[in-house]
Automatic annotation (TrEMBL):
Residues 176-283 form the NAD-dependent epimerase/dehydratase domain. It comes from Tangfeifania diversioriginum. This is dTDP-L-rhamnose 4-epimerase. Gene3D superfamilies: NAD(P)-binding Rossmann-like Domain. Residues 4-135 form the NAD(P)-binding domain. It holds the Pfam family Epimerase. It comes from the Bacteria.
């Protein structure tokens, strides 16, 4: 198979490139080596180096690519991963996020249609961010989809979501693909926008497509721009350097963490066997709180540092989310194989040897920027 991966030098893209290469496929990548992901010395980045000689690599911005019009007639499949992925950053760097994610997808689809490309399938990496807070249960109103949490409530330490009808606290349920779409960040809006562009265009020209809504993906080389996948790397790095961890909210916020190897296997099964136009959640279906993460890291690291639950919080963050993965289990026989503790251990091993100094700088810079724009609320409990 010949596959074009946009953003193929990124976190998920580089793992997918390696998988396809090992399976004997021909990979073409368009990626602008965004310095936020690849750092100042982009050709030295862990991710970029991992794809060297495994694909035909074109360093271009998807929005201005000259090569795109040629490549869409050379390949059998397009896997669209290129995106601005910082959820927090999307709340102030709005035009950049909309430009790359929404407009970038438009440019790619336009190239497919104008060049009368004969690709067999289009795959889009979307996100659980399209659901916003996701699905919850109210004892009076049944299944509900809460609004964004109020800053005033969170300042009082009330972090749980509330029923949009009676204001009672509600409990989180596994979010399935039919759950309400209700993004709470600009990033989430652009991911849904990408979905609509792909679904509408592909259906109108009879081009098969799959849209994946990934949960929080983690693994070696991961980006720390995403606050909740980032914490695995950031917390490990802090503890390794005997620095205290600042746990946001009350530490009971939760996520569904899935290892990048499981993600790329899901995309690969889809390319091999799926004939339907579908939207799938991809996660483990398990929710893990931030405090559980902290404990798992402590268990596997030698450190003199501790942690503090500070009650600080960021606008645009959601409270809980875990995926209902029945659809992908049924159609693709998908079973996540990597247990969280196993994945965390290999992530820690990587952080120790890779000496990723940039991890802190990026994290601290993102918090500083959010503070400047009144999107980060610091709560000192000392
Ligand atoms: N990692 C996650 O937890 C997660 C969760 C849900 C969805 N996703 C989605 O999966 C996809 C891949 O995510 P990732 O974690 O690998 O992100 P990443 O940031 O590591 O990779 C994105 C790649 O796209 C490239 N890129 C950015 N803008 C570009 C442009 N204008 N032109 C060309 N290349 C450009 C970057 O240089 C980078 O190599 C994204 O669409 C993201 O929204 C990721
Ligand atoms: Zn209610």
């Amino acid at each position: 198979m010949k596959i074009l991966i946009t953003g193929g030098a990124g976190f998920i893209g580089s793992y997918f490139t390696n998988l396809l290469y090992e399976e004997g496929h021909e990979v073409f990548i368009i990626d602008n080596l965004n310095p936020q992901i690849h750092g100042q010395f982009k050709y030295d980045s862990f991710l970029y180096k991992s794809i060297l000689n495994k694909a035909e690599f074109i360093e271009e911005d998807i929005l201005e690519s000259k090569y795109l019009n040629t490549i869409v007639n050379k390949v059998d499949y397009v896997v669209h991963l290129a995106a601005e992925t910082g959820t927090g950053q999307s709340m102030y760097d709005i035009s950049n996020c909309v430009k790359t994610n929404s407009f970038g997808t438009a440019v790619l689809l336009e190239s497919i249609i104008k060049n009368r490309s004969n690709i067999k399938k289009f795959i889009l990496a979307s996100s659980r961010a399209v659901y916003g807070e996701g699905k919850y249960y109210c004892i009076e109103h049944g299944n509900v989809y809460p609004d964004a949490r109020k800053i005033e409530d969170m300042q009082k330490g009330q972090f749980e979501c509330k029923c949009p009808f009676c204001d009672r606290e509600v409990s989180s349920l596994a979010t399935d693909e039919k759950s309400a779409i209700s993004p709470k960040s600009i990033y989430g809006i652009t991911k849904f926008n990408q979905e609509q562009l792909v679904k509408t265009l592909c259906e109108s020209i009879n081009l098969p497509y799959t849209i994946f809504r990934f949960q929080n993906v983690y693994g070696k080389g991961q980006s720390v721009n995403n606050p909740y996948t980032g914490i695995l790397a950031i917390f490990s790095k802090l503890l390794l350097e005997n620095k205290e961890i600042n746990v946001f909210e009350d530490g009971l916020e939760s996520r569904d963490f899935i290892h990048v190897n499981d993600i790329v296997n899901a995309i690969y099964y889809d390319l091999l066997i799926n004939k339907k136009n579908k939207i799938y959640n991809v996660g483990t279906g398990q929710k893990t709180t931030v405090l559980e993460i902290v404990n798992l890291i402590f268990k596997n690291i030698q450190s003199n540092a501790g942690y503090q639950v500070t009650g600080s919080f960021r606008a645009g963050d959601i409270r809980h989310n875990f995926a209902d993965i029945q659809a992908i289990q049924k159609d693709l026989n998908f079973k996540p194989a990597i247990k969280l503790e196993e994945g965390i251990c290999s992530l820690i091993d990587w952080i120790i040897i890779s000496n990723e100094a940039e991890i802190f700088k990026k994290y601290e810079k993102s918090l500083e920027e959010m503070k400047n724009f009144n999107l980060y609320f610091e709560h000192n409990v000392k």
